[in-house]
Amino acid sequence: MVLGTNLRFFRHIGVVEARFQLGLNFLMKGEPHMQVSMTVNGQAVSGDVAPRTLLVHYLREDLRLTGTHVGCETSYCGACTVIVDGKAVKSCTMLTAQAEGAEITTIEGLAENGDLHPVQEGFWERHGLQCGFCTPGMILSAVTLLEENADPSEDEIRLGIEGNLCRCTGYHNIVKAIEYAGAKLRGEEPAPAEWEVKA
Amino acid sequence: MFPREFEYVAPSSLDEALGTLASNPGAKVMSGGMSLIPLMKLRLFSPELVVDIARIDGLDAIEDRGDHIAIGALVRHEETAASPLVQEHAAALASAAAWTGDRQVRARGTTCGAMAHADIAADQPAAALALGATMVAASSGGTREIAAADFFVDTLTSALETNEILTEVRIPKSSASAYDKLGRRGGHTDYAVAGAAASVAMSGGTVSSAGIALTGVGTKPTLAAGSVEAIVGTDGGADAIAGAVARATEGVTVLEDLYGSAEYKAHLAGVYVGRALEQAIAASH
Amino acid sequence: MSTTSALGGVVRRREDPALIQGKGLYVDDLNLHGMLHVAFVRSPFAHAKITSIDTAAAQAMPGVRAVYTADDVRHLGLLPAQAAAIGRPLLADGEVNHMGEAVVMVLAETRAQAQDAVDAVDADYDPLPVVIDLKEALANTNLVHEGVESNTLITWTAPFGVEEDGLNELRAKIDEYKARDDVVTVSLEMVNQRLIPVAIEPRSVVAEWSAGYQQMTVHSSSQTIGAVASAVAGMLGIPYNQVRGIAPEVGGGFGAKLALYADELLIPWAARELDAPVKYTETRREAASNTIQGRGWLGTSTITGTRDGQVLSYEIDAICDMGAYCQDLTVAIPFLGVFVGSGQYGFDTRMQLDCVVTNKQTTDAYRGAGRPEAIYYLERIMDAYSREIGMDPAQVRMKNYIPSESFPGAMSPVGFAMDTGDYAMNLQTMLDSPEYSAMKAARDQPRSDGKLVGLGMSTYVEACGFGPSALVDLGFSWSGYGQPSAFNGSGLVRVNPDGTANVIIGTGPSGQGHQTTWAQIVSNELGIEMDKIRVTHGDTKDAPITIGTFGSRSAAVDGSATFEASRKVREKAARIAADLLEASEADIQFADGGAHVAGSPDKRVEWAAIAEVAYQPHRMPDGEEGGLEAHAIFSPGNATWPFGSVACLVTVDPETGDVSIEQWMSVDDCGNVINPMIVDGQIHGGIAQGVGQALFEEAIYDDEGNLLTAGLIDYPIVTAVDVPMFNLSRTTTPTDVNPMGVKGIGEAGTIGAAQTLVNAVVDALAPLGVKHVDMPMRPRRVWQAIQDAKASA
User: Fold this and answer.
1) Given Cys at both, which of B1, C429, C506, C761 links C543, Cβ 3.0 to 4.6 Å?
2) Class in CATH terms, C129-196+292-393
3) Which residue of A has its CA nearest to B5?
């Protein structure tokens, strides 16, 4: 949602990566590195990264938390969504350095003591996923949505997950899954599944 | 997906940041990174040094300054959208911020960043223009104020110098403003195919002053001077609005893109000038 | 609670616990010791001679291990492409033919370093004239490939199997219809635009070579991992049994991960050359410009019928865009459209589909693959005809259906035998529903908000569940590099000594829920509890031979094979149980984890006890072999032919052209249903992709062949805010071509969707004089249609 795209200027955006003179200073002295530390899923972690390391790559490659996925390059798909200091953000559009000192929750850290979070449970109960690739980001987005709005309408749910693309489900059962989780989090009995009603 | 190499600093004070910028002409300021990082990942833009201003204290407030609101450099889109101050005194900006990007983007991206990025189809610049905002730019040599009307220079180009940081946007209070747009997927989704912001002041049943601005239709967010001229001094009724609609793109270069022909975009500019004006005038009653 | 599952019951998916906790394994999650990363230099031109490539600077970059050009890989030959004349070099060889074509492959220690080295490669090009416009391609104004006489690769015609003389007779017959004075002829030129499939998981390949064991392991996010392994074996010159193909979790496929890709060969080749694990994961831009695209037809539909709704003939003449090279099914995709060219109808149908090459990315299978295109042209013109004669479009369809009495085995006018169908019953179910009545009422309700309202409907038939292995003779084969081709379904079922069961299959899911559905098939047949059945897929080391997941075929073909394997196990187990229980084999029934004697539930033996006997052969009944496992191969006698009826209600803002979907319903018939929850999920997702085509999606190439929509910024796919809840119901007309009576449901939602939405928008705009709006119906196009109608009024 971020890149200004007047195609007159970027008409070769598809592949052309304009040739450039790589900063010779980097070649001479090697790529700069820096120390980072943060808390991920309750664990203090620290590491040595190049400034250009995106948070998603740090999570996936250095910390081996591969539940956070990369689906695009432009902050559109939301597969890389993680929770940083309580907010759902796209970890592909954040430098690792920007997360210095942050509290991060990835999909791997959502279940507590082996108990699924109600949003995870909702996705399972209401068939809110198919291939599962968008699911971690979608779930974390939904978790923060329900923290901000405990009883969202269908429209509010749809707006709340606009930044998470799913190509499998048509979103129908994702909305149902989030409704299920919302009810659970409010201490209410979720509405029966459509197939229960039909049967 | 993989930026070129760069160096990164996160100064803790504005002076330090400005000093770094002054001594590094290849440096680029980053607040939320929502505009900058994708460009770097696509290697369309490759600064040698990124100056992350997110750790500077005192830039994250929305303040009531009497006749205007000040929005600091680190105020996120979601904060602008949800702020009662902004909603009351700069409704157009609140709507524009609420329709910027998606929820995750609004949680990281900043209102000032959206101004500095100066995208041709961004929402908040149009609101800033219509509301008559002033941009405050700091450099190691001091600060200067830039009228919004002079700030958006060209495609992805603002009046900011490379050694400057946009520290705040000052929005004169307006009791009646609105923003509306057609998004790329219809409704209010995504970037604007075309959108318009309007701010009006009514005095004794007459539109005493107005600001109207367009986004998405040309090389930059721009004022719709013809529409302003048409609406000021009228009763703000349907005929008057129609007059403003008819002059929406007067003096504005309208460009075709993937989302519409120049003819269509000019038409949409009028439609949204009309809708924004209707809402603003309704809010003034 | 552990239960067995009957077919037709909802079972929560067994694949979900891993996926909802981020613990599923996708190819890009692999991180092997010493792994090298690949990036490609890609062509900025759509058509050009490569005049020079200088890789010296790139070779010297930090971390770079190798830089390869066509000179290094030419000896490997072209990318295997079936049923096609024009194959793709693994790296562009002297000439590039579409923007984004891979020219140079770089391997480095990190992905970022590989990308840095890509920037340092200096390749020069001498541009050639480009072929972009389909009519110009057909006219051979310029040629895409040197030494080829025509851009037209093949022309498909229908009725299938009718030669030129017969087609001319049909033309003459249709001309006679048109000359009658009681008929109208309605014709529309329409675009069924190129699409980018956009699985959210980009394609990824990881290869590991073991020099000691001479074993290649290829991990690929593929729908057809067996075909990948086969092609790799052929390319490397090693036997199939020394290649192991693994497709772990696949993050959406939609046909785009069906074709074999050059990178699926280059990565294993480089892994062997460098004796190091190698990974390549495409970026989103590469996914747009280098993973296959779909659709891309420009055609004219013509219908001739009486003024009271009796259609006499339907014709379609279309140019189909193949792109620059052929991959697995490229030229076969339009032929899949021929299968369903006459839809559910009995009227005379003539088709001509000219398949042309252009300087664009290859097209191949994308959800529906030929069938959405064919149904689109047919159902749009049915709608236009209904409007022309002023009849209810549903009643016009009713009047022209092949009657239910013609089944089973009705012959379609385009020349295919169809399995089962009751089209009128299905449509009537929709018309009788309260949801449809509500839509009609909403359509006719006066509005005060200035919006226009439209109701659109259409019906569809699909051919899927491929298929008869005889299709190989028509060119549907996977015989890369001279490897023999499989075209069958298979399943392997083994009951272990502890009474648990393994089900091993060669077809794998990319979201379809095979682990759950296959466990249901086996549980239903054997009475083994669901949680004692483990379904594994996606690994050629263990899996029986099959062709993979596409064309809505897995359940109908490989599911049927698994059903038959289960039945073999059951029959043997029944003999063992009869022996143990001293009962007649005919009286043995299986339920709740064991076998019992009919009418005597207490005379019972658990599966573990049966299995124990099977693996202690001396205890077996006389003449029985030990073991309790079976493998079955299945090849159906026909495709399956699902069908359905779809309707939606839209509003249009006439000032902006903005379309909003208010309500959506469909009544689908895919025969018997194994898991209704999963089936509905498939339909939901299919609809959303059809909606995406109708409203937003289009792979746009400019006049120079630049792909202008190479990212999600300018290629918007449907988000949650763009669609409503979908109201689904179904009718059940089992197929007779497989033992479970199941058809297929992976593509039906998509096939039914796009024209329904266009019909609805045209319904809304008809009062303004609009007769057609091409897809994607972005606001600018809807608005323009209104302006054009005003201008011509």
Assistant:
1) C506
2) alpha beta
3) A52
